[in-house]
């Protein structure tokens, strides 16, 4: 980790001094244990603030549409450098494809990620005791509490999205930094979708209601998602007014169903929505279904290739249409064969 | 009875169940929920529903008096009948007890009182709930790392906003009535209570001192108001960058009180509903003309800090922050308001 | 004033009328999004040819099936309809060349997604009906209406005005 941090800091120092970028986005130490915070650096700022560790959970691509928008106030072209894990780089590819950011204005430092630790999961094991200090090595993290220390096996405490991640090394980058003692992670295939599908229809709906029913409409899931860059979200539109701003159950169901569906074919399963949610709603049970469906139906993995068109922006003449309704014949009055 | 003459009581913890049971005969008791449920409060129909040894709930107590969704009135769109029963009664006897509210949350209610009750026109919906509820707060023995109440004028043993405050002295509670209504209610369970001795008071003082020492005093607020008068300072250009613009900090904040009003009509049923809104949302100040006076996150972040730490002290003589730390704990990007304020104070 | 009961989380999931209720009393409301050039013309032909089909559909004419935003379908369910039908031109015959191909992909995902969440597969249906297929249109409407009558009213998503205050 230290080696990677050193390389990152050096690279950033260089690109800022050489004016290759106007702004650099990375991670810095957070004020809470097991957390980091996005860090915005310009020329002349202290690049030693940058860190790289197993707590760099935010998807930094979310800031790019608003920073690099060509309609931004000062109308100046902003070149941005950014640190990317595998998932973040896939988000970037998606944004480039959708013309929200330009590849030429980006300087991407890719990092081969070994997974991010789920801070909430670790905290839940501590019985409310507060963490005084944290240290980590390649296999585990150790937290120091007031009276004791506890060690956690990293593999068991990574985010679910990290355990299922098959593309932990960015495919699009300008500089690739491999973390020290990098070893390819064992990818645990995701079974949550299959497990959910095996439940009865009533059970599935109940679970959906239970999860989404906790929502307080804070929109953190939407704002943390790099794909949600609409200037006016359907959830806040008043002309036409699609849904109400309340937290009545039908409104919550509407909001989540549509927001998740808006990610169809675009969601890279970075997990930013789940991490942002203050009510711990497991959105991935629902988002993963669309990721799997798009893969199965259209053989498309989002975020791997800039040239490949989005699945909903293209078509094949022989797309499967087994879901279409066909009539039951001979049940129409007045029809003479 | 004046405040000086009020006596403190002792309630042995083994009599706590009786205490709750006895109160629940006359009043409905609620407690903030510590688990993620659809409701923010649980009704305490049996004493074991009350959880101790918790630091603070995720959602603030404000939603008891200022719910996230509230009907202002309902109407029938066809017959044009309108019903707003809320405004009908003016007498509000105590019906509910909110138990286990932390001093910072109770303090926040006193701030919301200034907004909803002291300014004309007063909010009848808020008043009805406020006057019919008694707040029993529970002083903090173990503040969290994210607590900073002492920096904003609150204390782990603050009595402001509460009717009764409980101090946890390990095997017993020290009970201090703060308001007159509290005295009446405590009199109804007088037989369960003992008198507090000097020894009890000493123990309470010691626990509170330890508690205050845990909390870092990060900054003094006196200079901040003046510093923030500089609306065009350059630090506004950098502070906002990480902010995603979601509503977590505002919705979880005990003092944030912005709201939106909308009409909903389905077939002939209609209602006018007040819902929480957040100044962090991009469309918060969007005008019908299309102009948005706070177009970027910079203006919105500036507005939030100014409202809490500059405008509110000028309007209400209070800082609208109680140091509960929820915004720090739940912010998805770990934007720490303490760091922000420190940064502002350090700038020229 | 009508009083509407607020749907609590515990009861909204399973409030579908089963055969224990008099089924002939339930007349579903079905919204049909029909593409102007093929399906709407097919519906017209069915009418002119006097083919009879159930009167439960409310038709919304759109220029092309590809115009339909999944938001409309979900909004229809939120507004309280019991079923949605989207009908367009047969693949290869779209008046706008390829609109229905994009629609086909969109609706495949939407239908599978709604089924996954737990909404009955019969609620939201898609079909191809050409301008010459009056009989086929009538058959499809008959099928959709029968399906919805069988599974009962849709109450999961329906927005009701909560006239009671909540804590």
DSSP summary, beta strand count of chain C: 4
Give the class of chain C from helix and strand content and strand pairing.
Answer: alpha/beta
- What value does the average pLDDT of chain C take? 85
Number of strands of chain B: 12
Largest sheet of chain B: 8 strands, mixed
Question: Helical element count of chain B?
Answer: 12
- The stretches of 5 or more residues of chain C where confidence is low (pLDDT under 50) are 1-23
Q: Major sheet of chain C, described briefly?
A: 4 strands, parallel
What is the radius of gyration of chain C computed over CA atoms, rounded to a whole number of angstroms? 17 Å
* N- and C-termini, Cα separation of chain C: 23 Å
Provide the succession of SSEs of chain C. Answer: HEHEHEHEH
Oligomer: heterotrimer
What fraction, in percent, of the residue positions of chain B are helical?
25-40%
Descriptive notes:
With 337 residues, chain A is of the alpha/beta class. In chain A, 45% of the residues are buried. In chain A, the strands form two sheets. A five-stranded mixed beta sheet of chain A has the order 2-1-3-4-8. A three-stranded antiparallel beta sheet of chain A has the order 5-6-7, with no helix packed on it. Chain A is 30% helix and 13% strand. Chain A contains eleven helices and eight strands. In chain B, a hairpin with a 3-residue loop joins strand 8 and strand 9. Chain B is globular. Chain B starts with 8 loop residues before the first strand and ends with a helix. Chain C is α/β, with parallel strands linked by helices and 167 residues long. Chain C has helices at 9-12, 39-48, 70-79, 99-117, 134-151; strands spanning 30-35, 57-62, 83-88, 124-128. In chain C, helix 2 (39-48) crosses helix 5 (134-151). The A-B interface holds A 30-33, 35-40, 58, 62-63, 66, 73, 128, 130, 213-214, 216-220, 222-224, 231-232, 236, 244-248, 272, 275-276, 278-280 and B 36-38, 53-55, 58-59, 68-69, 144-146, 238, 241-242, 244-248, 251-252, 260, 262, 264, 273, 275, 277-278, 281-283, 295-297, 328-330, 332-336, 338-339.
